[in-house]
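In this section we walk through a basic example: taking a raw amino acid sequence and producing a predicted 3D structure, encoded as C-alpha cells. The instruction is simple. Fold the sequence below.
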Amino acid sequence: MTNLMEKKIGVLLSGRGSNFEALADSVAAGRIPDAEISIVISNREDAPGLLRATERRIPARMIPSKGVEREAYDRLVVAALNEARVDLVCLAGFMRLLSPYFVAAFRGRILNIHPSLLPAFPGLEAQRQALDYGVKFSGCTVHFVNENLDAGPIVAQAIVPVKPGDTEETLAARILCEEHRIYTEAVRLVLSGKFRIEGRRVLPTAEEHSEERLAGRAKRG
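The resulting C-alpha cell sequence is shown next.
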C-alpha cells in the first residue's frame, strides 16, 4: 500500500539513466525516506533509462521531442508530471534546455546534476572543457534549475581531482561516482524542506544540521 505522505519524484532522462538508477536505489534503501519515483520520462525512444525503469516496475513514458517546438514539448511533459502528481523533478541526463513555461510550472522544484564545479564549465562536454582548460580539480554540482543554463542556486558539490593522463572517459567515470552520492543527498535535503535559499546559496536549516549530527553520533556509537 502506498504511503499517502510519500513525496513523488519525476525523473527526466535522455540516455542511460545511471543517476536515475542511483536515485531509485536510494529510495528503495531508505536513503531518501518517504519518497517514491512516480514516473520516468524520456524524449528518446532508445534511451536505456526507460528500460531500466520498466525493469524496476516504475511507470515510464517516451514523449518524442523531434520536430516539436520547445514550449509545446514542455507542455506535454508538464502535463504528464502533473498527472503523476510529482512534487520534485530530477533531471538525469535530460539533453534539453527547459523553457520558461516548464520552469514556472515547477519553480523551486527542479533539480539538475552537472559534471563540473559550477559555475565553471556549464553546458555540454564539461569533462572535455575541464581537461582542455588544464584544471587540477573538477567535480559535480546539484543545482536548482532556473531559466538560465546551469545557473540556479547550488545545493551540493563534490570535488574530483584531475589525474595526469586522465581522458574524458576516465575523468567522467570518477565524477559519476560522486554524482550518484551527492544527488541522493541533495534530493533528501530538498524533499525534507529543511533548507533556505539566500541569494545563490542553499543552506540547511538548524534542524537539519541537528539531525545530521545525531546521525553521525549514532554511526560512531
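Looking at the output, two observations stand out. Residues 42 and 62 are 5 Å apart (CA to CA). Confidence is low (pLDDT under 50) at residues 217-221. In the next section we compare this with other chains.
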